[in-house]
Each structure stands twice: as structure tokens, then as C-alpha cells.
Amino acid sequence: MYQLYDYPTSGNGYKVALLLHQLDLSFRYLETDILAGEAQSPAFLARNPNGKIPVLITPEERVLSESNAILLYLAEGTPFLPTSREARFEVNQWLFWEQYSHEPYIATSRFWLHHPQSGSFQDKIAERRPGGLKALAMMENHLAKNDFMVGDGYSVADIALYAYTHKADEGGFALADYPAVSAWVARVAAQPRHITIEEKTNFTGT
Amino acid sequence: MYQLYDYPTSGNGYKVALLLHQLDLSFRYLETDILAGEAQSPAFLARNPNGKIPVLITPEERVLSESNAILLYLAEGTPFLPTSREARFEVNQWLFWEQYSHEPYIATSRFWLHHPQSGSFQDKIAERRPGGLKALAMMENHLAKNDFMVGDGYSVADIALYAYTHKADEGGFALADYPAVSAWVARVAAQPRHITIEEKTNFTGT
Prior knowledge:
- 2 copies of one chain form a homodimer.
- Chain A is α+β, with helices and mostly antiparallel strands.
- Chain A has 2 domains: about 1-80 and about 195-200, Glutaredoxin, CATH 3.40.30; about 85-190, Up-down Bundle (Glutathione S-transferase Yfyf (Class Pi), Chain A, domain 2), CATH 1.20.1050.10.
- Chain A is about 50% helix and about 10% strand.
- Chain A has a 4-stranded mixed β-sheet, covered by helices on one side.
- In chain A, strand 1 (about 1-5), helix 1 (about 10-20) and strand 2 form a beta-alpha-beta unit.
- The longest helix of chain A is centred in the middle third of the chain and has 30 residues, at about 85-115.
């Protein structure tokens, strides 16, 4: 069985839980309280020296970090990752774009608003706003012409972008302003074996 | 022939130029003055709506952005990308780590110090310093036990990390404090068909 070290509201951890569930791979959810410093403990740092969740332990005891790299690893050879060189490039392009040009704006704003105990970040939220608006506008343009992020089917590119986009309102970004993105959010949520971000913490069995 | 739209001091563009040269793929270097807004022009945004260099146009007229996705695309089927599922995961893990946990600290500090005309960023440079020190410490620990970033050979993981690491001094980070990283920098520079970041702009022929 897989073991997923994660924090409940994390979209990065949600990506991994969602794909595991859609691949019908059973996993155990292990809550890691990043606000209490649990990702900086010696035990955690031995697994991921970068001190970040999610960390996925495979049944073969491999220790994996970096959510989008984990998606590519799990999706290899499945319908969630296209096989042509061109489509794989597009998946990778969106995954790197998500980590550099989307997550630092949309996810980070949500984290600060969601966890006021982590400090007063009003200035930083304002600073990150233009980047978040730009990211959503890029997605809107793309999804106005395409049903999914890459090609004509659901892939890990959708999972990676869905994780924080569907909660953008919680970061102060009004998804209702982006009709194509909103329609895509509904399309992703309608995929077989979809689970919500809240449901990921249900998988605590052994 | 490939066409590479890039800015001379960009490490992200250098990654692509270095791999193209090492793969013996000829390319034309097209300088894009990002400080003069050339990456925000309608013509450029038609190629990359994200308004960032590098952009690579392939001989088949495919338009590629996101430097690390370009590395994976070009390296497919070559000795610069390992073939086992496990090693490919490690390459991807380092590539995503580079974009999220290394580049925003080390490259950004260098950009601000390198281009004082882009504004006064002393506060931001101080804010980014701990992240840069952490990234270099992680590389030092890894390279104290390994000659290369993944497995026992040179790969796109080395190219992606080398691009900004070898110029870390220009961002205020003293590479001399990291002996294993410094030895790896020399090892990468000694690879066949290596070109320096300055040499990438020489490829302006047609």
C-alpha cells in the first residue's frame, strides 16, 4: 500500500491522492501538521530534505517528493499520461508552468488567507494578485478553445491545474469571472472516481 | 534549424542552448530584450502567452516554452535522459525542485543584482537569501555522495541545475562555501561540447 504524508488543505497533496484514487491504488493518508513544524522534524527531513509535503512512500519503499514529478511517475503507462512526444511535451509544459507561474500566486494567496495564524500577509497577497490574475487569464484563453489542458482527454495536466484552481476563490480570485475555467472545473469533477480535496483525508485505514 | 528566443544572461535560456549544442543540433540565437518589453510584444505573446523567454521554435515549427519541459523534449531518446522509470522520476523531481525551490531564490537574486536598472530590490534580495542557502545546502549534501544529480552520469538534471548554480556568486551566494557543488560545477563544465553561458549568443548565424 502507498503512504501519503500530506497536510489536509494542500492542493499539492490532493493531486497525488486524486490520481492514486483514480488509478485504484490504495493508500494510507498520514496527516503531517506543517504549521506545527512536523515537516521540519528529523524524521521527515530524512524522507524529504526539502521539508515539504507531499511525500509518497511506494509499496517498494521508494520515497517520492515534488507533486508533479509524482504525478508523472504514477501516470506512466496509464491513460492519464498521453504517449506521443508532442502531447507529453504539452503535459510537461503545463506542469512546470503550474509550479512557477500559477501555484506561487494562487495557492500561496489561499494559504495565507486560510491560515491567518501563519502571519499577516496582506502586502504579500496584494503583490501576488497580478500573477494570479494572469495565470487564470491564460487558462481561460486555453480552455475557451479546449475541453482539457492537453489534447481531448483528461490527464495529469488537468489534475495538476485543478488542485488549486478550483479553490481559487479561497485565495481571493473569483472563478465566476472565468466561465471557460469554471466549465472545465465541473468537467474535471465529473471524471470517474473523482474525490474532493476534503475527501482525501478519509483514507486513513491500514 | 532550431530558433531560440532568449535573453543573454538568462540561465533558463542557457539550459536549452547548452543541450542543443551538446546534441549537435544547430540553432539560431535570437536576442529578445526582456528589459525593453520585447517579451510582452503581441508577436512574442502569440508564441508564448506567458510572456517569458526562452521560446524554442523547432524545425517543424513547433513553439516550445518552459525551459525544463524543453530539456525533457529534446533529451528524449538520447543519453541525456535516463530510461528507467526510477531514474526518470529522479530527473523530474530535480527539475521541479529547480523551478520551485532553487530558481526563485538564486536566479532571481542574481537578476536583481545584475540589472540594477530593474529597480531597487535590496529588501527582496534579503528575503530570498534563506531559500537560496537552503537550496545550495541540499545540493551540497547530494553532491557530497554523488558525482551527478541523477545516477552516475551527466543528464538534463545537471544541465537544469548548473544553469544558475554556477553563477550563484552573481546573486550573492559564495560557491566556495560549497566544495562538493564546486567540484560538480567543474565536472559539468568538462563535459564534451560544453559551452559557457556567454558563448550561447555566438550562434547567430542562419
